[in-house]
Amino acid sequence: MLINEACKKSKLTKKAMEYYEAKGLISPKVLENGYRDYSEADILTLKEISVLRKCGISVTDIKNILCSKNKSAALAKCKYVTEIRLQRLQTIQQCMDNLIRSYDVEREFDYLQAHDENLLTVKERLVLAFPGNYGLFLSLHFGRFLDGIVDTDEKRQAYNEIINYLDDVELHLPPELSEYLEEIFTLNERLDVVQLENTTNKAMAEMLNNTENYLAQHHQDIEEYHAYLKSDEFLNSPIATMQKKLRDFQKQSGYYERLVNNVKVISPHYAEYLAEIETANEQFFRAFPQAKDIYDLN
């Protein structure tokens, strides 16, 4: 069908359709006379674009959603970023309401300091820096510890280091690892990254609460898992290859030195959490000394 009919079916203007084509969101067939011939599939895509635009999603993000193997997961990532931005907006609106009721600049200066948006920026940048919903997973993981404010020179420097790391991270990310992270977090259409993070947190809390008891209760399961990690089945698998690439990426990009260590600076809560994990790890390797070889810790 020609553009006039396509406009009627999609409820879009000619200008909008030409814009979406220029941005690579649609690719209608071009006839010999130069006219566009829109298929029913093109119309469905245009309707999809229209719905997503009305949800406030950018053209760039819409393109990522259209190309995604799991559109629901890609949309969940956009929704999370939108929620972060709404938190900023709510803070601004509250400040404006307060000033309207009583124009006290000193009070609102203190209010905005207490609602520092820098940590919201870290959460947002974490989501956007990594492929697929891996960034969302990391943002949820670190985000629950980012509940303070950047109120010292040391924290400001750490914050700047984190932002610089997130700016550079794509340079260290091999295409095959990027594709793997995209797939592993979108493999199941029903995968709820929030639920995955909550489940992980619950299991970690159970282990940290009483590490000795946890290791005793799960001793057989851990032994079986270690046996699997040493098996040819695992060592020759694509997952093992990609896990090694992930470890190499973390070393090369400075994941621990530039990200984790600086999150510890801006979040004492996170530093305490890592100290608990370190103590638990000591107990773990006393119970399973052979695990050091498995996890390349010797």
UniProtKB/TrEMBL annotation:
Descriptive protein name: MerR family transcriptional regulator
UniProt-recorded Gene Ontology molecular function terms: DNA binding; DNA-binding transcription factor activity
Entry keywords, A to Z: DNA-binding, Transcription, Transcription regulation
The keyword Transcription appears for this protein: yes
The keyword Cytoplasm is annotated on this UniProt entry: no
Domain HTH merR-type: 1-68
Signal peptide: none
Superkingdom classification of source: Bacteria
Matches recorded under PROSITE patterns: HTH_MERR_2 (PS50937)
